[in-house]
Amino acid sequence: MTRFQHFLxxxxxxxxxxxxxxxxxxxxxxxxxxxxxxxPPKGGWGREDVLAFMRDxxxxxxxxxxxxxxxxxxxxxxxxxxxxxxSPANALSLWALIDQICADDPHLEAQSFVDHPELSAFxxxxxxxxxxxxxxxxxxxxRGRLRATEHAQAxxxxxxxxxxxxxxxxxxxxxxxxxxxxxxxLRGSLPVWPINPLPDTGSxxxxxxxxxxxxxxxxxxSTAKMRSYEELNKALTTLGSPPVGRSGKxxxxxxxxxxxxxxxxxxxHENHRWEPAGLTDxxxxxxxxxxxx
Length: 293
Hints:
The strands form 2 sheets. A 5-stranded mixed β-sheet has the order 3-2-1-4-7, with helices on one face. Strands 5-6 form a two-stranded antiparallel sheet. It has 9 helices and 7 strands. It has helices spanning 47-57, 91-101, 111-114, 148-155, 173-185, 210-216, 229-238, 252-267, 281-286, and strands spanning 6-11, 24-29, 36-37, 62-66, 124-125, 129-130, 204-207. It has 2 domains: 6-68 and 191-274, Nucleotidyltransferase, domain 5, CATH 3.30.420; 91-184, no CATH class. With 293 residues, the chain is of the alpha/beta class. The protein is globular and about 55 Å long. A hairpin with a 6-residue loop joins β2 and β3 (36-37).
């Protein structure tokens, strides 16, 4: 798997508004050199800007890593929304449903989806509102329903949270739902592995977990977030990447994007990354997978 020439890591955000401080894009080139940040438009990145970049300006043969969940849990209960007659049968249909329900939400937001009269029961929302179906498998832990790939993440020492969780610093629900809107709008132009089969040529998107990249760069789960160039450069060196050559403070969204771009370059050619033990055809079709888990 050596055909990729560029490696783009996107630290995503589900926050409201036209611009999100939490979005950063890191890009590494197969020919070498340190990873670099893709410069945002004036005012900073918005989700629609990232969509336009991916659709119109993506370098050829790019492996794109998206720090978001590409689907919701399915295997644990046999459905995304068990008991609801309109529950989608696969991830592609889930993306379409989210985008349809949220068609009037600006900036690729997904508030209409979590406020939906039937679907809200599956989410944990602010104000202590935990829907009756948030733990539909009877899981005793407070993280909610998990996908098969999130169990694989936990086995690596990480602490994944449910994509149905919309509360707290560890929440990943809003970023995943907004990301799925983007993925639906990119259908036909960018395949998403393993939901789409891996093509022989062209660019491909995968789900990433930036903490996994940091751990493979010598960090620990508790120190995965880096906020200085010194920390970043040491981690880059561990991955065999040249350092970025600066010192001082840097925000952790930028370091997440930069270290993960370098990590994708370092490991994207390894065949076993594309053949995880827990991935079945059914899981690929419904839940997707996190690259490297």
